[in-house]
Amino acid sequence: MRTGADPQRAADVADAMRALARSGFLPEEQRAYASQDRPLPLWHGQTSSQPSTVATMLRLLEVPVGARVLDVGAGSGWTTALLARLVGPDGRVLGLELDLELARWGSANLAAHRMPWAVLEPAEPGVLGRRVDGGWPRILVSAAPVSMPEELVGQLDEDGGRMVIPVRSTLQVVVRSGGRTTVTSHGSYRFVPLR
């Protein structure tokens, strides 16, 4: 089982999290708790995931500089911004959020950090993810479906595409390569349901 413990990758994720404080992506009444390692409420039942969980997911995603990344369940924009920091200006990040109010607020949070290679948009109701030519090299999902969504697996690049997704309560890594899809499990976590 992969642990995501590559020292350089861990350092890159830690640098991104230092550069983009969680407090800038929280409602004002929650900002005092930003450094606490626990989920914090946003609204409409949505949460900002705890920092240690976000760090684990980003390490497992193994985001290359210059990559295209889809961020499903982007919420406040924090994970979209962290992904943008990891891919750099030559990459592209698309964050999708189903809750319209949260998507607008998350987009404004992201825009305040001036990384124009990343955008956060409302997700289309009833549509999971967004198809692109050639598939996504990386997909991050921050909400839990009850089973592996084949629709998202099918949106991965067939040549090394990688997705990190919690399924029920188990964090899973999906890799497509050489005509095969492999899935590995990486511990138990709690997430809001994927809608």
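The above is record 1. Record 2 follows with the same two-line structure.
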Amino acid sequence: MMKNLYIIGGTMGVGKTTVCRKLKQELDNSVFFDGDWCWDSNPWVINEETRAMVIDNIHHLLINFLNCSVYENVIFCWVLHKQEIIDSILKDIDLKKYNVKQISLVCNEANLIARLRSDVINDVRESNDIIYSSLKKLPLYSNLNTIKIDTSNKSVDQIVREIKKL
């Protein structure tokens, strides 16, 4: 049986982590990891060295999960707003060996703003700056070689059902 590899991207606040956690619960023999786990630092430094490190960390984790016989479904999510980021993570992985589903979660601006404001109010996110940053990335997803799933006004269950039908 061919393993499923779910690569799920989307801007901050679009619902990636929530959707992936639910997808993991619904798929047998599954594992989920978030690219943010490979770059959870204080201070958060963005430079060429840290970018290369996190891509390398993600790449190795992905390969290890794919090589583990326990998992039939590997679910990975991260912002993934540029095609070269996706390509660098998947480099040297024989994608013909897996049923690869590259997905970008998107939503309308009103939904995104409401979700992020709620996160800031509830101390899930630290700053209102996240709204500007997330809105700036939102249009970039239309340029990617991914399946787009609009999460606007949909429940997590509805989104997971759409992903499982792919």
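Residues 48-67 form the longest helix (20 residues).
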